[in-house]
Q: What sequence folds into this?
């Protein structure tokens, strides 16, 4: 029985067609499970970048670029299966992904052990900093966005804030960083609610926040939960107090415009030379505005990797790592200026200050 | 042997342990445990708590086993006067409560962000010796567990378990303490699952609450039912088969040129559809239980 | 205080219909059907699709409910009757497998994105200081009517008498000339309709995704078990108790006791509270609050 299985498995390995001419990269994304909306949007960014690069003549003087996207299912064992498949079977030099810190960290560790390149495009946990050489982040970690949000909140004259975010790796990370950042700037988070995803109502959580009588509600949410929270905040009349969204477009994309009228927020700044054209390309291809804020990182990661491969003149991991470090200094991506710090993490990000008033406007 | 194959084989061994553990509960003692994943979690969190509080791996395995036995005793206490289906839901609820606690008590468990950087078992070995040794360790562990389970279930004790499963009243009238039998089985099963969890933590090097969702339990259920409940070899074969199928779904996608979201749907269909098909048309599984198999009578 | 009651009611209504469906079906075919929560999702998705196809919401809702009822009968004949021959635990696992198959189908047909009905948005109404919306009132009213109608059928009609007779002693019921198969079929149909109505009720008030059903699984089970599986109206009370526990945990301020202005139990523990309540009740009353039968397994 075992032998038969092993033989079948070996056959499956051999049967995969290999196109030697293409330069192949890998990506592990949550295309199913709780974060599927985000994972799917990350894939869109990657797809767009690959299309554009190939239309522009590919990489390494005319070779086609291909990114094999694998589903993590939102579970670490499957993500690790996928990463190992990409590295040992598809022989990719670099893997992009994932979204949850709980999955990004193990696959990042594995890739670093293997001496491959890992590009984080979705996780913002501070623990990613410690992954080691070869692991890059094109997304600013929690401290970057939280610091910016805290600055902005104080600048608006708000002193006390109530904070709500999902009770997962992302939400816990932002909550901790934002609390710290606001305190350093003289403000205070009077109440924090981390909600359990997948509930039919968040009225009770919102009313708990209301008890703190904050100057401003600060939140970060996505998908069905974000839409529900916005609707219920409106229904409870909480929108008479200002709302501030960390990643405004992500928080409001699924909500009715009436519910989110008047909200403040920060968002990614698509101002690089690629920014505007990227936004238009996205709208043209998918027929809607950015679904989440995360697609741009997928796009930038592929563009960066392609540029690094061209600069290094090879698709070897060590050469890509070296080239990435050189390129990642003032690189103008769709999400703005990308500069890596000594830990290869994006050190700054030019966010936009936004307000929704009959459509999203810059403040 | 390619590295990917080694990886899949290691995971298959670990799932084999979990599957043996669940099979001992449902296949022999008739305990419908829907909280299996939390017993595994006891092992992973034993490793992670020991690592993040600098206690060393030996403390990790001891912690894991202690947690597992405590959870098993709690499950058994609940099971003392509950019907099988009620108990199933109760274990599912308890597992979820424990997962929520682990997700929120940051100071102890690392919270939702989990704990990374747990050392590999043979991390300082050159490659490919490291992964191969890990595989050898997992195979040895699986073989030991198999031997232990076999030994247990072919003894008088195993007969008592089967008697309890089929005719609980008769077993009680013959002087067997049903609650003692249940809690002993649960404890053995819990230790096996915790061992798998401990090795998993030191292989994947990351422990987080997302690894403990209920769907993982259902996957292990599918392994046992497809392999054959009440047969140790069946449980192992089921685990290996499912793990290989899971790992090779992406290759099917590559070969057929399907979009990636079909991988998720295909995995769900494999678990759900496979489980359902076996339950309906081949309840005994791939390798049926052997009736009347004992050494000491 | 009024606001507290309104919040409890809104949440209870979400749970009640599906819990009643689960409980009533359990009274006749003795296993908890996990797939019922997926019937709720199916109902909501069907109604959504029909509304998009141009039907008015009311018609779409009715057609969707009837279709799901028919689907429930069909699945009962094709899948569960067969599974039940192997025992209630097997049937329960089978229903779990079936709900995974449902998930796979939803994933491929409806996609993972959040969706909502096209409805006008009304500003919130103030009612004795509590804030509610029109949609919430309508959903609550429809649920109340459905529950009352179900109670009427159960206690005031001939069919209801047959149902209760079959539930209490199906052999005796058959002997007195009741067509128990037909009665079971009717109850299964009604349970499907109730579940679909519950799903639509949740979707109408806001957003829904394909995960709607599975997210409801544990709270609904907790409600049904608290009320005592098999006791349909007990399930409604169970839903109220669960909703109240969750709301108390999120809204009671412990600050004054500890000399702080605000101190809450973390909201993440709200769901844990209802599961813990379930476990505690099961420890004290193994068959729920409103079922007096005692049997030991």
A:
């Amino acid at each position: 029985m075992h032998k038969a299985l092993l033989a079948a498995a070996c056959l499956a390995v051999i049967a995969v067609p290999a196109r030697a001419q293409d330069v192949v990269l890998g990506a592990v994304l949550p295309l199913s499970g709780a974060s599927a909306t985000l994972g799917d949007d990350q894939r869109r960014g990657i797809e767009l970048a690959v299309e554009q690069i190939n239309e522009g003549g590919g990489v390494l003087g005319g070779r086609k670029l291909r990114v094999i996207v694998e589903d993590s299912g939102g579970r670490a064992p499957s993500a690790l299966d996928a990463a190992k498949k990409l590295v040992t079977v598809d022989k990719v030099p670099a893997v992009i992904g994932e979204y949850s810190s709980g999955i990004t960290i193990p696959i990042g560790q594995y890739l670093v052990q293997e001496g491959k390149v890992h590009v984080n495009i979705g996780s913002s946990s501070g623990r990613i900093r410690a992954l080691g050489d070869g692991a890059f982040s094109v997304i600013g970690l929690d401290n970057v966005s939280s610091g910016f949000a805290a600055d902005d909140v104080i600048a608006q004259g708000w002193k006390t804030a109530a904070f709500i975010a999902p009770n997962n790796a992302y939400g816990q990370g932002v909550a901790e960083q934002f609390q710290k950042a606001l305190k350093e700037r003289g403000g205070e988070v009077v109440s924090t609610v981390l909600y359990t995803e997948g509930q039919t109502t968040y009225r009770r959580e919102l009313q708990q926040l209301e008890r703190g009588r904050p100057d401003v509600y600060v939140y970060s949410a996505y998908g069905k939960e974000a839409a529900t929270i916005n609707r219920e905040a409106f229904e409870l009349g909480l929108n008479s107090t200002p709302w501030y969204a960390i990643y405004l477009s992500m928080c409001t994309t699924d909500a009715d415009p009436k519910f989110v009228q008047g909200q403040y927020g920060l968002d990614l700044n698509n101002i690089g030379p690629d920014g505007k054209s990227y936004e238009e390309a996205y709208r043209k291809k998918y027929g809607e505005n950015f679904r989440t804020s995360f697609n741009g990182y997928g796009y930038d990661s592929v563009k960066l990797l392609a540029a690094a491969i061209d600069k290094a003149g090879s698709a070897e991991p060590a050469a890509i790592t070296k080239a990435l470090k050189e390129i990642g200094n003032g690189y103008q991506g769709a999400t703005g200026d990308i500069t890596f710090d000594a830990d290869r993490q994006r050190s700054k990000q030019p966010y936009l200050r936004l307000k929704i008033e009959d459509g999203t406007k810059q403040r | 042997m390619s590295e990917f194959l080694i990886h899949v084989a290691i995971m298959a061994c670990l799932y084999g342990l979990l599957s043996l553990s669940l099979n001992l509960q449902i296949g022999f003692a008739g305990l419908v445990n829907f909280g299996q994943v939390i017993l595994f979690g006891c092992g992973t969190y034993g490793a992670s708590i020991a690592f993040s509080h600098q206690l060393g791996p030996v403390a990790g395995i001891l912690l894991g086993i202690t947690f597992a036995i405590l959870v098993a005793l709690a499950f058994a206490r609940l099971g003392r006067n509950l019907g099988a289906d009620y108990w199933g839901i109760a274990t599912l609820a308890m597992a979820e409560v424990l997962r929520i606690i682990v997700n929120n008590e940051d100071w102890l468990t690392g919270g939702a962000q989990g704990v990374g950087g747990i050392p590999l078992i043979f991390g300082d070995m050159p490659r490919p010796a490291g992964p191969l040794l890990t595989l050898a360790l997992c195979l040895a562990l699986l073989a030991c567990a198999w031997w232990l389970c076999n030994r247990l279930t072919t003894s008088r004790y195993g007969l008592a378990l089967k008697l309890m499963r089929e005719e609980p009243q008769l077993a009680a009238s013959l002087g067997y303490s049903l609650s003692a039998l249940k809690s002993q089985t649960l404890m053995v099963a819990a230790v096996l699952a915790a061992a798998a969890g401990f090795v998993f933590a030191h292989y994947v090097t990351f422990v987080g609450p997302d690894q403990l969702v209920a769907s993982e339990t259902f996957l292990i259920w599918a392994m046992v039912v497809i392999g054959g409940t009440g047969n140790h070899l069946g449980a192992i074969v089921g685990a290996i088969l499912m793990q290989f199928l899971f790992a090779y779904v992406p290759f099917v996608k590559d070969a057929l040129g399907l979009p990636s979201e079909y991988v998720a749907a295909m995995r769900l269909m494999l678990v759900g559809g496979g489980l359902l098909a076996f339950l309906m048309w081949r309840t005994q599984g791939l390798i049926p239980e052997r009736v009347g198999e004992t050494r000491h009578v | 205080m009024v606001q507290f009651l309104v919040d409890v009611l809104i949440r209870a209504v979400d749970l009640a219909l599906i819990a009643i469906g689960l409980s009533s079906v359990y009274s006749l075919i003795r296993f908890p059907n996990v797939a019922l929560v997926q019937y709720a999702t199916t109902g909501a998705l069907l109604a959504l699709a029909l509304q998009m196809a141009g039907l008015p919401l009311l018609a779409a809702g009715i057609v969707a409910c009837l279709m799901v009822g028919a689907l429930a009968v069909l699945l009962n004949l094709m899948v569960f009757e067969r599974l039940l021959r192997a025992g209630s635990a097997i049937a329960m696992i089978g229903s779990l497998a079936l709900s995974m198959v449902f998930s796979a189908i939803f994933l491929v047909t409806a996609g993972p994105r959040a969706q909502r009905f096209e409805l006008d948005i009304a500003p919130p109404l103030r009612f004795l200081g509590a804030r509610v919306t029109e949609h919430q009132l309508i959903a609550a009213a429809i649920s109340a009517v459905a529950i009352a109608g179900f109670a009427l059928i159960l206690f005031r009609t001939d069919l209801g008498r047959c149902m209760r007779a079959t539930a209490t002693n199906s052999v005796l019921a058959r002997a007195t000339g009741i067509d128990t198969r037909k009665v079971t079929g009717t109850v299964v149909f009604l349970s499907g309709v109730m579940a679909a109505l519950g799903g639509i009720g949740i979707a109408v008030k806001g957003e829904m995704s394909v995960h709607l059903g599975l997210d409801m699984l544990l709270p609904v089970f907790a409600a049904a078990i608290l009320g005592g599986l098999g006791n349909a109206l007990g399930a409604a009370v169970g839903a109220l108790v669960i909703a109240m526990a969750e709301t108390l945990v999120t809204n009671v301020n412990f600050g004054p006791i500890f000399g702080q202005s605000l101190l809450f139990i973390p909201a993440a523990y709200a769901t844990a509270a209802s599961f813990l309540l379930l476990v505690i009740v099961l420890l004290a009353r193994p068959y729920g609050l409103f079922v007096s039968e005692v049997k030991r397994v």
